[in-house]
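INTERNAL AUDIT FORM
Audit reference: QA-55
Scope: verify that the stored structure record matches its stored sequence.
Auditor: D.O.
Record contents follow.
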Amino acid sequence: MPKHRRLPFLLALAGGSVAAFLVVWPQGVGIHRLPFVANAISLRGILAIGLGVLAVLVGAVAMWRRRWGVAAGLALALAAAVLGDGAVLLVRGGGVPMAPGELTVAAWNTYGGSVTPAEIARLVRETGADVVSLPETDAIAAAEVAGILDREGIAMAHDTVAAAPDGENIPTSILISRVLGTYRLDAGAGSTVGLPSGVWKPVDGSGPTLVAAHPMPPLPGATERWELGLAWIADRCRDPDVVVAGDLNSTVDHFSGLGIEGGMIGGCQDAAAESGSAAAGTWPVRLPVALAAPIDHVLVGSEWHVQGFAVLTDFDDAGSDHRPIVATMTRE
């Protein structure tokens, strides 16, 4: 490379490398929950493809015009970003075989009730779920699901929180196996802002605290309420005997900085991350699992050990824009 092009190349490479680091690991400088950044890293697979295409185009320009300075430096930086994003996804994993556990927890955002009660009942039946968190499912649908299951000999209690403070009337329901005992909504625990979440505790105190969660998405103008929702979830995760499930509108990237005492968010660990499935996407269903955003989660307190986690693709035609998830766990 001629000397007069070496400096522009090095400057472009240095600047591009800094930008590549910010794209791959924005939590390294604390910008992972900023507007647009939060949205971009939710879809790491799409982001990597876009950066790869851009790297090829910039590299082609460098070769065609024989200008190996700025264009070549940028092409190399873009390629590094693609490799970095791919490495993150590879380390997080796309799924491993499920193992049975003492407790099975499922979650499914049913897209405003677009999923029929029969399909939700099929989810319970096929997964053997003891607990099912159902964001965007109303009390009528939850009761119908419980009725279908009861006729099949599967006894499930149901409950619903209808609205969140300063939010919309988009409900969140929960199904709880009667084998776990009687549970009651803890109204004093509050809710996420904007969209409703609830906390259910065993009446006799002998089981885990259950949280059906649905914080706001990180849309422009709603980022602050989204962050407040994540903080509310982190507070619930101070309880070592807690299980949180739902559409958290966040990936594990967004949990960075919210953990305490070794937890990923509060004192909780993420079931997908613990089982090598944190790159398996749940939304939207029109994208393959490898490219979709992994924003639906099951979180467990320190008294629980994750046995397995799966994103279920057999329900892609059921009417929701989310895939259901299921996790198994045992007590430590």
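Auditor finding: record pair retrieved intact. Helices lie at 3-24, 37-42, 44-65, 70-92, 117-127, 139-151, 223-236, 271-274.
Action required: none
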